[in-house]
Structure formats: C-alpha cells, structure tokens
Amino acid sequence: MNDIRIVDAKKITETVRDLCIKANLCLNDDVRQALFNASLSEENQTAKKVLNLLLENAKLAEVNQLPLCQDTGMVIVFVTIGENVHVTGNISAAINEGIRVGYRKGYFRNSVIDSPLSRNNTNDNTPAVIHYDFAPGDEIKITVMPKGFGSENMGNMKMLNPADGIAGAEEFIIETVKKAGANPCPPLIVGVGLGGTMEKAALLSKQALIRAVGSPNPDPVLNELEERFLRRINQLDIGPAGYGGLTTALAVQIVSYPTHIAGFPVAVNTACHALRHRTEII
Amino acid sequence: MEIMTPFLDETIKNLRAGDNILLSGFLYTGRDAAHKRLLELAENGKKPPFDYGGQAIYYTGPCPAPPGRVIGSAGPTTSGRMDSFSPRLIKEGLRVMVGKGARGEAVTNAIKEHQGLYLAALGGAGALLSLCITESEVIAFADLGTEAIYRLTVLKMPLIVAIDSEGRSIYK
Ligand code: SF4
C-alpha cells in the first residue's frame, strides 16, 4: 500500500484564487508570441495595427492590473487528482470559494447567473464548470480557464455520419468559423474534438484549447489536419477583429478519441485571442 | 480624426465605413438587460433615462473599478445580441451605437433610414479602452450591476466606423 498524501481543501481554494487572478490579468506567453508572430507576417495594414493594439492591451493590462478583457468569463476548471491523494474537505466547494475570493480580489466582473430562466446574477461568479479526472501519483493538477461568452456562443457540434468522413468534419469546422465572423474576437484559437460521444466531443474541443499555441500536435495525422484547416481558415479574410486580413486564427488544435462504428462526432470550441488558462500542480 | 459628442448630423454624414476616429465626450453603456428595459419604456410611451439626441450607446458590461480608477476593463460586447432592440431605439432617436461584430439587415436599414452610425471598438482590448475612460457614473437601472446604464466620459477612445449612414459596412 502506498502512502496517502493529505491535502487540505484550503490549499485548493488558494491555488484556484491565484490562478483566476493570473489568468485574467496576464496573457499567456504562447498566445502573446503567436500574436507577435502574426503581427510580423500579416500583410493587411489594418490587421497589423489591430494585432499590435492587442499586444499593447496585454501590456497595459499587466502594468495597470486590469483584466485583459472585461468579460472575465465563466470559469471552467479541469482537476486531475492523483490516486494517492486524499483531500480533507469538499473539493468542489473549495474550488468555488477560490473563484469567489479571486474574482473579488481582482475586481473582476461577475457574469454567472443562477439559471438560464430566472437569470439572477449570483454576484460571485460561481459556480464553476468543473471536470474531474484521476491519474496515478500523489499530485493534484488544476487548470483554470475563464471563458468569455462572445467566443463561447460561437461554438458548435455535429453528429456526422461515418460516410461524411474527415471532409465532412472539415467543412463543418470551416463553416463554424465563417459563421462566427467577428463575434468571437478573432484571431481565434480553434479547439476541435473528434470522436467519442456527443458530450465527449464537446469536452475534447475545450480541452484542445489547453495545448500551448504554436506547439505541434503529437499525432502527425492530426498535425497535418490542423495545418490544413488553419490555412483554409486564414483564407476566409475575416481577420483580426473581423476587419479583414490574413490572421483569422492563430491555431487549430485537435484532440481525438475512439468512437462508435455508427458515428463521427465533431465539436468546435472557438476561443478568442484572450484565451486564458493557467495550470498549477499541488 | 477626432470627434466630440454629441454627434452632429454633419459629422455623421461625413463619416465612411473604415474611418478611424478618436471619440471624446459621453458614452452611455447598455447591453442585454438594459436594452430589454429601454424597449419596455419605449413601448409604454415612457421617457428613456437619458436623452437619445446625438448620443451614443456603448455595448459593454464593465468590470468593477479597482481602487484609484474610475472603472475596470470596459471593452465591447457582441452587438448582434442587441439587433432585436436597436431598430426601435433608433426610431426613438438613438443615433450612434458602439460595439463589436456585424449587425443584421434590420439594424443596417434603420441606420440608413435615420442617418445613424455604428462604431466598432476593439473586442478584447478591455484594459486599453478602460484607460480612455476618465469618469463613470451609474445613471439608471443600478440593480442590474454591470448591466446598468453608466454615463462614461471618454477621452480619445479609438473606434472605427463599422456601418456608416449610407449602410456601408466593414464586415463582409
Ligand atoms: S470573445 Fe474573448 S476577447 Fe472578446 S469580449 Fe469575449 S472574452 Fe473578451
């Protein structure tokens, strides 16, 4: 029998609080680098200017401790719990408390409402959407992703037929980005989930956003598809902020999973240039 | 080019889709929930909380003001969600809207008919835009929190003409 590591739920609250603050104030280096690279290669002058303003916004946010974007989002949390860890206390409650404290401390906007019907603001940006997973070991890995709804609203999913194949998936992905136009604040990071079931594909499309922008897909087949889709998306001439240009997306990131003989689920989660996620291991 | 509010007919007429402007003066905020109430007021023949004449409504739900600032991040939200309200408000006298993203045909037609203007602010640049705001005051619907109507005083806020008074748009 391995030793069981004990972690106080308070530690989870503190970690989530700090991750929320950092994610909202400080643009991740990979996205910053991708925006910078795009600003160099962009040929459209308006687009170039927009990309430079976005980099400027990231700098101003950090210096002035203002959120990158006023839509500080609904918080999605991915938690991977080591099999040899025991948490004292309620983990979900601890995560939500971390959000509550972080959003108050950071002067972030509360955007979460109690129900899609009654629509009363919960006034502390909770609850989060939490996804749990387990892994060997005695660590807890927490990823916090505040997601704005300008971009979240433009996501879509479809249950394709196997006969539609990857060509069908490709058309659906391109069409989703095209229809979204300027709404999700391009340049985008396009997360794609292939396979699984309906809800699994949607989840994969969100998890796909966590990979570092600009890093290759470890699967060479998916990597090639990502490059092809990105080339096509960047020919749509939506451009940064939708004002036209070569930079409609910074990356397409695909995750795939086994599926059923009768199905080909595909989900697209559009993330804006203010893609915010931060990870910490306890 | 630099523009001061209130918007004059002359100014509106001279602006073309794609023009970059620096706006100074007042902006009134309003998004989904406030629009619902503004529409109810209009339908009941009641006066709006501010005089629409020559004024602009800015689709934003700002972050709370950190200590030492007048407001937190305050970039635009997706304008399309206001499409079902805007034609009526334009009819009531609203001339200028500020947001992000394309508008529907009914809004474009109302802009053309009433010589209005739709300006785009840079989506996601909430920190940069916040620093153009020098004063902020809630003037109506305080119970809506971030969705209340604020009167913002802005100084040289960078905007782009997205739909001009002849209905030309920068969005394809
Ligand atoms: S889509 Fe992203 S950048 Fe645009 S307003 Fe929403 S959260 Fe901000």
What's the helix and strand layout?
The complex is a heterodimer of chains A (282) and B (172).
Chain A lengths: L4 E4 H17 L3 H13 L3 H20 L9 E9 L2 E4 L2 H15 L23 E7 L4 E8 L1 H4 L3 E5 L4 H16 L7 E9 L1 H10 L12 H14 L15 E11 L4 E8 L6 E4 L1
Chain B lengths: L1 E3 L4 H6 L5 E10 L2 H12 L12 E3 L27 H6 L4 E4 L5 H9 L3 E4 L5 H5 L2 E8 L8 E15 L9
Parallel strand pairs in B: 1-2, 2-3, 3-4, 4-5
Antiparallel strand pairs in B: 2-7, 5-7, 6-7
The structure holds iron/sulfur cluster (SF4).
Spatial arrangement of strands, main beta sheet of chain B: 2-3-4-5-7
Shape of chain A: globular
Tally of helical runs of chain A: 8
Query: What distance separates the N and C termini of chain A?
Result: 22 Å
Q: Tell me the helix content of chain A.
A: 25-40%
Radius of gyration of chain B: 15 Å
What is the helix tally of chain B?
Answer: 5
Query: Proportion of β residues of chain B?
Result: 25-35%
Strand order of the largest sheet of chain A: 4-2-5-10
Global geometry of chain B: globular
Largest interface chains and counts: A-B, 39 and 35 residues
Return Rg of chain A in Å.
Answer: 19 Å
Rounded to the nearest angstrom, the distance between the terminal CA atoms of chain B is 24 Å
Largest sheet of chain B: 5 strands, mixed, barrel
Order of helices and strands of chain B: EHEHEHEHEHEE
Q: Which percent range fits the helix content of chain B? A: 10-25%
Give a count of the beta strands of chain A, DSSP E runs of length 2 or more. 10
Q: What are the segments of chain B in which pLDDT stays under 50 over at least 5 consecutive residues?
A: none
